[in-house]
Amino acid sequence: MGRRHHTNQDALCLAVRSTPPQAAVLAISDGVTTAEGSEVASLLAAETVVASLTGQSDADAPIKERMVDAFKAAHEAVMADRD
């Protein structure tokens, strides 16, 4: 097995969108065990992806495009939180 730590740097977030188009979104983020604050970054990334995908009003956009936008938003949120 890999390294063991006293804390878990991984995170997950689940949300259900009840308005059309209905959807369930689950994001799992693997924290980087060797990076300081990775438990915060992984949670922020998971929450941002879920919020982005459940909050999008443009349901006609291709899912790949919406996923890319959600991951970009998560990256930007994590990078902004580092400052």
From TrEMBL:
Coiled-coil features, chain-numbered ranges: none
Species the sequence originates in: Tessaracoccus flavescens
Organism domain of life: Bacteria
Record-linked Pfam families: PP2C_2 (PF13672)
Domain PPM-type phosphatase stretches: 6-76
Protein name in the entry: Protein phosphatase 2C domain-containing protein
